[in-house]
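Please, structure for the following, as C-alpha cells.
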Amino acid sequence: MTPKPKTVLYVRVSTAEQTSDHQLAQARSAGFDIADDHVITDHGVSGVKVKLAERDQGKRLFDILQAGDTLVVRWIDRLGRNYDDVKAAIETFNRKGVTVRTVINNMTFQSDYALEGDDTAKAVRNALLGFMAAMASADTKAKQEARLAGVKHAKEGPDADRKYRGKRPSYDRATMTNVQHLLTQATTVSAIAQDTGLSRQTVLRIRDEPESCEAALARWGM
C-alpha cells in the first residue's frame, strides 16, 4: 500500500533554549496541516556554516521525505548556507518528488513528479528558485557585512582606547579542553552539549574553529 503523503515542517533555531513552537504555530496559521510528530528541529546550528545534509536533523529529511510529500520551511534560508546550498537542497527534494513550500510569502517549488511533462512550468520554477536563493544569499552577505562594520566601528570609534574583544566566550579554557577530549571519544555533539551545559553551536565552534576559540579566550584573559 502506498503511504499517505505527509507534510513535514523543518525548523532551525539558533540556540538550545529556543523551540519550534513559534514556527509551527506560524505555519499552521498560514494554512499548513502539520502533525506534531512531523516537525524536524535543529538546535544551535549555524545556517551560515553548516550544510543541511550535515546537520543532525537536517540530514533526516533526505531519508524520511518521499515522493508526494511536502516540505515546509519558514523561509528558504533555513535550508542552506548560501545560494548554491539552498538551490542544491531544493533541487534534490524536487527530483525525489517532494514539493518545497515556504510560510513567508507562500512560495511553492513543485516537485518534478508534479510537473512531469510540463517543461514550461519546470523552467519557471527553476528561474524562481534561482532568484529566491540568490536573494537569501545576498541577505546573509549583507548581515555579515553589517556585523563587520560594527566591529570596525568599535575598534576605531571613540572608545578605541579600549581593546575590542568581541563577545565573551560562554566557556573557559578547562571547559574547552574537556570538550576537545570528549570529541575524541566518539561522543555526539548533542551529548557533549548536555554534559557541559554549552549550546550545540558552541561545541561545533570548538570542534571546527579551535584557533578562533583559543584567540577569544586569550582576548578575555581566560
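The mean pLDDT is 83. The first strand starts at residue 7 and ends at 13.
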